[in-house]
């Protein structure tokens, strides 16, 4: 689970990352990353819309993404803001595929 300090909670922060961040598209997710010069832990946010599925499916996808990001937390540079948008296909993919996809994007855009 991601600690409170590792989560993006304000809508304005989500918008600034999605609009101004570098994108890494993949088959089941789109990862947006903004690097700041602040010396703070990296923060993560997740966007899982109703297009992905019902509430149970959306929460399952969100929990999977949180687990992947918690695992990758030590490799992400300090001050980075990351927003991961789940695409509708993320509902039917297995955890290993989703993990590979997100880790690849984090390594390309947010590695320490």
Automatic annotation (TrEMBL):
Annotated catalysed reactions: Endonucleolytic cleavage of RNA, removing 5'-extranucleotides from tRNA precursor
EC number: 3.1.26.5
Keyword set includes RNA-binding: yes
Molecular functions per Gene Ontology: ribonuclease P activity
Keywords, in A-Z order: Endonuclease, Hydrolase, Nuclease, RNA-binding, tRNA processing
Enzyme class: hydrolase
Any matching Pfam family: Ribonuclease_P
Superkingdom of source: Bacteria
InterPro entries: RNase_P, RNase_P_CS
Subunit architecture: Consists of a catalytic RNA component (M1 or rnpB) and a protein subunit.
Biological function: RNaseP catalyzes the removal of the 5'-leader sequence from pre-tRNA to produce the mature 5'-terminus. It can also cleave other RNA substrates such as 4.5S RNA. The protein component plays an auxiliary but essential role in vivo by binding to the 5'-leader sequence and broadening the substrate specificity of the ribozyme.
HAMAP family assigned: RNase_P
Stored NCBIfam families: rnpA
The family this protein is said to belong to: Belongs to the RnpA family.
Protein name: Ribonuclease P protein component
Organism, as annotated: Microbacterium gawkjiense
